[in-house]
Each structure stands twice: as structure tokens, then as C-alpha cells.
Amino acid sequence: MGSKNKLKRFKENESFKNVYQPSRSDLTEGQFTFKGKWREEVFKNQNPIVLELGCGKGEYTVNLAKRNPSKNFIGIDIKGARFWRGAKTAIEEHLDNVSFLRIQIELIQHAFSENEIDEIWITFPDPQIKYKRTKHRLTNSSFLQQYKQILKPDGIMHLKTDSEFMHGYTLGLLHGAGHEVLYANHNVYKLEGSPEEVTAIQTFYEAQYLEQDKAITYIRFKIN
């Protein structure tokens, strides 16, 4: 994407009523006013809140929102030029249960209060295979503890990925730490009984992976 196009999207994001872009200092200094108030001030209802971390273009966030009008969805990514597409689609289709938040995932505790979130989806994250980059894996122990802080006690986590490595790494970590694995499947499109919300929504890249006959894996779990 050209820099001109990026700038145009950044500018448009600023005008979108469903996009929130707090600065790092706003978050870390407690100046982000929507923390703990997403239901009341953003969505104007008391429905469950679901996050998608590393939402990319926002395809999954938007499609989950369409399928679940009685839940609120927030796509989170640091790349605003990417989720511009999802934010624009949500506005065009009058989806009031969708918002987008431009922050780094490691600052998530500064954007949401304890027990504010009901579910978290992690879809097709970078597996960070190099050993030294373990700290950036979105399902490492440190991130899981951050998610636990903002999730309700019975909150659900979802991991959908095309990376067998990420799937295996996460399953091993969950079992090793005594977390509760509710469902695990290393090829959701080939095995019967896969949850519908996992197979009914496909991102642009996921469709390409499927054309290449690449297995898509899925884990649903609770953090203990």
C-alpha cells in the first residue's frame, strides 16, 4: 500500500465514530476514559464484549458482529491502515456492535477494566517461530495473565491459526500450566463437529490457505 493511501486511511479513521486511537501515554497514565465504560459509553448497552486481537483488516470482527447482534465486538490492532476496511464496512452496514481500537496488545490492561471482557479471539497471529521472539507470541504465559485480568472469571479464549507450530506450542503451554482446554482440533475443516462460528467465517488469507489445502487449527480454552 502506498504512503499516500495510508495517510488517506489514517485521516479517514480519525473521522470514524467506531475507531478509538489513544496515545501510549493516555493509556499508561490512566487518561483513557473508556476503560471500564465500554458498555455504557461506547455501545450503550449491557451486552457481552468480545475482542479480536491482531484483527488485521477486521474481517473476522465484522463477521462475528453480523452473526451475533446481541454481543459487542472490538477489533484491536496497531496498524490502523489495515482495520480501516473493517471500520468502514461496519459504518456502511450500520453495525452498531463493532468498534476498533488502535493499540499495542501489551497495553491491553490499560484499555479495559478487570472482568470487563467476555471472550477473546486470536486469529492467525504471527507464530514468532524464532526462539528469541517467544515474548511476542500472543499466547505466551505473560499475555495469558494479562488477558486473565480483563476477562470475566468464566471468560473464553479462542485461537484460530494456520500454524501447526503455534497450535502445538499453545496446547503444550495450556496443558503444562493447568489451564482448561475446552476444545482442540488440528484441522477444523476436515473433521466433523467443528464449531460453526469457526468454519462459517473465513478471512481473505484463510480462503487462500484452504485453496492450498493448508490445515486450519482451533483451540477454545479458559485461563485458570
Key attributes of the depicted protein:
single chain; 224 residues; alpha/beta; Rossmann fold; eight-stranded mixed sheet; 37% helix; globular
Explain the overall architecture:
The protein has 224 residues and is an alpha/beta fold. 37% of the residues lie in helices and 21% in strands. The chain has a single domain, classed as Vaccinia Virus protein VP39 (Rossmann fold). It has an eight-stranded mixed β-sheet with strand order 1-4-3-2-5-6-8-7, sandwiched between helices. Strand 2, helix 4 and strand 3 form a beta-alpha-beta unit. It contains nine helices and eight strands. The relative contact order is 0.14. It is globular, with a radius of gyration of 17 Å.
> What top-tier CATH class fits best?
Alpha Beta
Which architecture per CATH? Answer: 3-Layer(aba) Sandwich
In percent, how helical is the residue content? 25-40%
CATH superfamily: Vaccinia Virus protein VP39
Residue windows where pLDDT falls under 50 for at least 5 positions = none
The total count of helices amounts to 9
Shape: globular
CATH topology: Rossmann fold
Give the strand content.
15-25%
Number of E-type strands: 8
The total tally of domains equals 1
Strand order of the largest sheet: 1-4-3-2-5-6-8-7
| Distance from first to last alpha carbon | 41 Å
Spell the H/E element sequence.
HEHHEHEHEEHEHEHHE
Largest sheet data: 8 strands, mixed
Overall pLDDT level: 93
Classification by helices and strands:
alpha/beta
Radius of gyration: 17 Å
